[in-house]
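Why run this: before we spend reagent on co-expression, it is cheaper to look at a predicted model of the complex and decide which construct boundaries make sense. The entries below are exactly what would go into the expression plan.
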Amino acid sequence: MEFLLNPYYLQMAMFIIINAILGLSMYLTMSTGQLSLGAAGFMSIGAYVSALLTMKAGLPLYLAVPIGGAAACLLAAVIGLPTTRLRGIYLAIATLGFGEVVRVVILNLKVTNGALGLSGIPSMSIMMSKAFIAMGLGDGLGPLSVRQLGNLSVIVILALLLVGLILFSVRLNNSRLGRAFAAIKADEYAAEVSGIDTRYYKLLAFFMGAFVAGIAGGLAAHITFFIGPKDFAYHRAVEILLFAVLGGSDTVWGPLVGSFILTLLPEALRFATEYRSMIYGAILVLMMAFRPQGLISEETIRYWRTKLLAKKAVQQEEISGGTN
Amino acid sequence: MFWQQMVNGITLGSTYSLIALGYTLIFGVLNIVNMAHGEIFMFGAFVGLMIAVHANVGLAGALLAAMATGAVLGYLMEVLALRPLRRRKVSELAPLISTIGVSIFLESLALRLFGAEAQSFPPVSSTQVFDLAGVKISMVQIIILAISCGLMLVLRFWLEKTKLGKSIRATSENIETANLLGIDTKKIIVLTVMLASALGGGAGVLVGLAFNAIEPTMGITMGFKGLAVLILGGLGNITGAMVGGLLLGVAEIFSVAYGVSSYRDAVAFGMIILLLFLRPEGLFGSKEQQGGR
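The model came back. Tokens follow.
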């Protein structure tokens, strides 16, 4: 127990959840067949806006993070409005360029502290620890110290948020909105002819992705204590893209699995840190060549579902056969 | 002052045009955006530098070596990352993702091979400066302008007049029809990718000369500028790429000269966002969407 609860593993768990949220943000935009490479840019907006709000304006976290997401959404409008009229490739390039512009602006603004980045961002786990101390749990609870309690409660909060977002996405799939998204993804022209306002839905999906990425950025900032412009450069954008490409963007589960693997993989491959980008690059090329739908596609899920159901049926039969 | 900035801008812009031409050629024929073009360009610059430092063959040798490197990398990319995607029906974004993979692979390879520090280009030409009615123009600038304009003119002529050039244009117009007319489109695709990458490699040497410093990460920054020019000029439009590159170069130099130097790298995308609002098909693009869908 003590072994599992060391700060490193707890931090890892937080990063896995943050990355899973980023994977979901990719999924939301990709569910209309659009490719946004701006997740890193939107994340940085969310991170900087919310960090500045908590540091300079003293806003509470539960307000600062959504405001950061909204700010990301606002900037998404600037790119989304002209590009969603056009072919998908425009959005991909414009969002990529947007990430670069955001990086340059952050590097040069005074309020963001330029290349040095912002440090001393109030940490969520310390906030929670303080709350526990105020509740009279300064000595910890049972075997848990107050620091572990703080960290664990942050993980619980993040996990709840993630579960909420997953439920939202699953629910979305079965709604009118989700069906419109799926129709646009399958064939944009056919969808338009069928009376779907493709531009509106494409914009909406793009905004949702940007908002979720902004939220993830705000949360990440309040976990890591420090953010700098380098954290959100091209490589980060590619890494987030990889979540969706490796896992697959057809279902909600794909990007989640992708982000899980890709957060743990660098830890497992510590000896090959120098080759990390090369491996990532190779994965992108190989996935596109051999399995463009990603590790988890709709067929994968259907296959496992039928297999599991069959197994269950066999078991039930055995049980009922035994009693007879 | 104004004309001085103009000359600097056009010199810089001519290298952007050369980079953007690589994007445009590939987009024209294959209908994909080659995200690895910036890294091929960067490799060209480094090989050119190595050759210029160690082999003592002068500028021409460095340029040829860089172009050859570009062509080889282009060939490898075509075979390994693009061809497998053509065999099956994939979305138009799949090649984009695949070439992003190539781009970060090449970038980290360059970091391993050449190191992360910026390296300065050896003085391969004289540092003479000419004075034309108050406008100073250096020998390096003249060389850059001459080579990039020369390459563009040759390309223009070659595409316009030769049989191969015509086949490339036919293929970019409509690949099925070109195939029916007896053009070996497979060969044309390989040729186009190699040609575009060779131009990128050559541009690497010129940018190395212009900035006098090259580093592995410049593939990303310059690649972005090439992309901006691609949109600025209209996807797949060769004239657009040439003029768009010059425009971007001039706009950048003026933004540096009149105050906002640290935002230089943001100018390109500021321009395209504005353009996408006003004229999404690009400055020289036609209103019709290419190939229906």
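Residues 297-324 of chain A form one domain. Chain A touches chain B through 48 residues (CB under 8 Å). Bring this page to Monday's planning discussion.
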